[in-house]
Design brief:
Distance between the termini: 48 Å
Shape: elongated
Oligomer: single chain
Strand content: under 5%
Strand order of the largest sheet: 1-2-3
Radius of gyration: 36 Å
Number of strands: 3
Helix content: 55-70%
Length: about 850
């Protein structure tokens, strides 16, 4: 919701922009001219020239060339190396690229006459000369035609010294690309034909200098008037220097800010990285800051760039430019267009992506300082400006965005204060749309009455046809009810209603959010298979961006897909599911994929960081690597402190610090509720069992069983039954233990982790041996001893070595009881060898714990 309706807040600018001809424009003209030499019009019936190559252009090459021409015209300036990389990535005619690079080399070698001849041919097209079709056979009113006419007008207004400076700039522009390498020569079979074609299609004007002087004399008076007008405009705006950025914002790109706007003409640092254009976007976004800062972008190009980058930051922030490069580009746009407040808002979104609080606040304030109210007034509330326009709109949305900023950094009290101001301004002007957005942030920030606020938002947003807010409130209401004893049927019904609206209005982010919520609900209810299925269905959604493509080798275009927090959570859910099955290698590959897709500086990195720490901690606890387990807990505490404290109690129990574990669980119990409360109670029961207090553990487990049943936590209910069965077994309550075992065994074996399944099977073996009486006891013991091989394999799969030793020890005792001495000795030897490979402390070997 941060970027919605931003462009409508700002008013237009009356400042007239002065356009210039850049070396990038010259390269585009040469690209168009060389394409026109091939007679691409299939209806062209002119007799072919034997000295000019006429290759057959396929429809794919013709289409690719036309689209590339439009994208180069609409995009901002790029270095020559970047232009060549973009052209080489497209399926263009190879001969076209070769002739284009040869034309660039000829203009660099032959001097300023080639530049004047080029614009002479453009002028012939602009005045509709009879020979214009020889060089630029296109419609006068087409996109290319308008571009040629505009460049012709701008060029004819230049003085001779300015034309000379333009040519020198072109030489520097060319040297940046070919300073360290020679341009690829033309093929021998086409080189002479190409030279002849240029001689036949471009008129050789020998008196170009005289013509230029005449044009200069005719345009001199008009140019002086324009310069005086522009100086007056610059003098009026000199009170505020909008080209300066805060130190906090510049801290993001400290390595590149020194070259921005600097005019450095050196070669790019990395020629393999492409610069982003408003329509054709490179995925990596790498490049030198000097080459980016030296480019020129018109106001229309800047607005298109800002619009697309804002869309990408909301749709898939990894497809946008990296934060330092984007910040350098924003600084360049602000330098060229000081009154463009949208650039500051894009800087605000970029700082939010990098979690840069000071820079985000500064950019947001600068964005609304430029246009606090539409129409230029400083009215408040319901005041209206000229034509009845609401001048307080900017103030309302500025306050709401500031509240959203505080919400992003979890500053709840400050966010609520600012949000009250925004709501007051919206009520004064009867802006119901702004009020509904404020209500959405209110139930996000407020700790009380969340469900009631969400219900009001659903009703009012439906009345105002605000489909996004209505769907968001429905899904949020379902997520809020998951912390209450609401039935699963009511929660799924609420999610289904919200998903219906998301599919009806094509709200991609909420479609992902709906499936992500389903996965979270199934996971809390104890159905990990359904949770993994929901996550995989989320990843299978077709969320291709309808208007944005990116370039990446070897493909010409690559679609951009939605990538938000639900997407990252789905990948992590699948990774955790694989880790629970003992597939640590596959889980690590998935976490690595999430790490590449969601960089560490992004807003969604906390999700995969927690998943990685969770998987590592579980593995280290199984393998008794306590130091690495402490490190994993430290990493987990940065993103999920409550979960880290709960898992720390498991580590303390494993290392024998029962007093510390009991104190930590006691602190957590006072603030826990629902699922967390059940897990805290299970941890307390483990501490009491390890200390030998079997009778004390029973009321704790009964309370945990009650809470889990009330909140419909099926898997935790099954685990609690198994803990209770273990305690009852140690107390000699075999009948009650058998009932508890039957109640929890099915749920664990159906969808539990490999470790939990192995523990359940081991407990079942102990209970079976305890219940065996009489003549059948020997047969039951042998059957259980053979079944322990499967338990050992399951423990080995998850590398729970201390449990493997416990299983081997129990198997040896069983063989000893029935008199199978050879099998007992084999188990004893295996235990001894395993002990040498994986030594452990004495307190880890406990056959009485679950």
């Amino acid at each position: 919701m941060l970027g919605q309706g931003v462009s409508a807040i700002y008013g237009g600018s009356g400042r007239r922009e002065r356009e210039v001809v850049t070396p990038h424009n010259i390269s585009i003209l040469l690209f168009i001219q060389k394409y026109a030499l091939f007679r691409p019009k299939y209806w062209d019936h002119r007799p072919p020239d034997p000295n000019t190559p006429h290759p057959d252009l396929t429809p794919q090459e013709r289409k690719a060339t036309c689209l590339m021409t439009v994208r180069l015209i609409q995009g901002g300036d790029m270095t020559l190396s970047e232009v060549l990389r973009v052209l080489e990535a497209a399926p263009l005619l190879p001969l076209h690229l070769t002739s284009f690079m040869a034309a660039l080399h000829q203009m660099y070698r032959k001097g300023i006459d080639t530049l004047l001849n080029l614009f002479d041919s453009v002028e012939k097209f602009a005045i509709q000369d009879s020979a214009r079709s020889e060089s630029f056979p296109c419609l006068w009113t087409s996109v290319v035609g308008l571009y040629l006419r505009r460049l012709n007008l701008i060029f004819r207004r230049l003085s001779f010294s300015q034309v000379t400076s333009l040519y020198q700039s072109f030489r520097i522009y060319y040297q940046e690309c070919y300073a360290t390498r020679q341009p690829p020569p033309l093929p021998p079979t086409h080189q002479h034909r190409q030279m002849a074609a240029e001689g036949s299609n471009i008129a050789d004007d020998t008196d170009s200098d005289a013509k230029m002087e005449d044009v200069v004399e005719e345009r001199r008076e008009e140019e002086e008037d324009d310069e005086e007008e522009e100086e007056e405009e610059e003098g009026e705006g000199s009170g505020i220097n909008l080209t300066l950025c805060s130190g906090e914002v510049m801290a993001i790109n400290s390595s590149t800010s020194g070259d921005v706007g600097g005019g450095d003409t050196g070669a790019p640092d990395d020629e393999d990285d492409m610069m982003q254009t408003p329509v054709l976007i490179p995925r990596d976004g790498e490049g030198s800051s000097s080459s980016r800062g030296s480019g020129h972008s018109s106001r229309q190009q800047a607005e298109l760039f800002i619009s697309q980058q804002t869309s990408l930051l909301q749709y898939s922030d990894t497809a946008a430019l990296p934060p330092p490069i984007l910040q350098a580009k924003i600084k360049q746009l602000v330098m060229q267009n000081p009154d463009m407040a949208e650039a500051h808002f894009l800087s605000y979104l970029n700082c939010l992506r990098s979690k840069e609080y000071c820079g985000a606040v500064y950019s947001l304030l600068r964005a609304f300082d430029g246009h606090p109210g539409r129409g230029g007034d400083t009215g408040r509330g319901g005041d209206t400006g000229r034509g009845g326009e609401d001048t307080g709109r900017g103030f309302r949305y500025a306050a709401m965005n500031l509240a959203a900023l505080h919400a992003q950094f979890d500053h709840r009290e400050a966010g609520l204060e600012v949000l009250r101001e925004a709501m007051r301004l919206a009520q004064e002007s009867s802006d119901h749309t702004c009020l509904q957005h404020c209500l959405a942030w209110l139930y996000t920030l407020s700790p009380l009455h969340k469900a009631q606020l969400m219900q009001r938002s659903v009703v009012k947003s439906s009345e105002l046809s605000l489909s996004y807010l209505s769907c968001l409130a429905r899904l949020g209401h379902a997520a809020q009810l998951s912390f209450t004893p609401a039935s699963p049927a009511s929660l799924l019904q609420s999610v289904t209603r919200g998903e219906g609206l998301t599919w009806q209005h094509s709200l991609v982010s909420l479609q992902h959010g709906g499936w992500g919520l389903r996965a979270a609900l199934w996971c809390s209810w104890g159905a990990p298979v359904m949770a993994a299925l929901a996550s995989q269905l989320l990843l299978r959604l077709n969320t291709r961006h309808p208007a944005v493509t990116t370039t990446s080798a070897p493909n010409y275009t690559t679609d951009t897909f939605y990538a938000g927090q639900p997407t990252c959570a789905a990948v992590c859910n699948v990774a955790i599911a694989l880790a629970n099955l003992g597939e640590y290698q596959h889980a690590s590959e998935l976490i690595h994929h999430a790490q590449l897709r969601f960089p560490s500086h992004g807003p969604h990195a906390d999700t995969w960081m927690f998943a990685r720490a969770h998987i590592s901690l579980t593995d280290h606890l199984h393998t008794a690597r306590w130091t690495r387990a402490h490190y994993a807990l430290t990493c987990m505490a940065t993103t999920h402190p409550t979960e880290a404290r709960l898992r720390r109690s498991d580590l303390l129990v494993a290392t024998g610090d029962l007093v510390g574990a009991w104190r930590l669980l006691g602190d957590l119990r006072s603030e826990a509720a629902g699922e967390t409360q059940v897990r805290v109670l299970l941890g307390e029961s483990c501490v009491t069992v390890a200390a030998g207090g079997w009778a004390v553990a029973i009321p704790i487990l009964v309370e945990a069983l009650t809470v889990a049943t009330r909140h419909h936590l099926a898997y935790l209910t099954a685990i609690t039954h198994l803990h209770l069965a273990n305690v009852q077994l140690q107390l000699g309550l075999l009948r009650e233990a058998d009932g508890s075992m039957r109640a929890g065994l099915g749920g664990v074996l159906a969808g539990g982790s490999v470790y939990d399944q192995a523990r359940a099977r081991l407990l079942l073996a102990k209970l079976t041996v305890s219940q065996a009486k009489g003549k059948e006891r020997a047969g039951k013991i042998l059957e259980v001893a053979v079944g322990l091989d499967l338990v050992k394999q399951l423990f080995m799969k998850v590398r729970a070595f201390h449990r493997v030793r416990e299983t081997i020890y129990l198997k040896a005792r069983l063989y000893h009881e029935v008199g199978y001495l050879e099998e007992r000795n084999k188990c004893a030897l295996e235990f001894r060898q395993f002990e040498l490979q994986h030594p452990c402390q004495a307190y880890q070997l406990s056959v009485n714990s679950f």
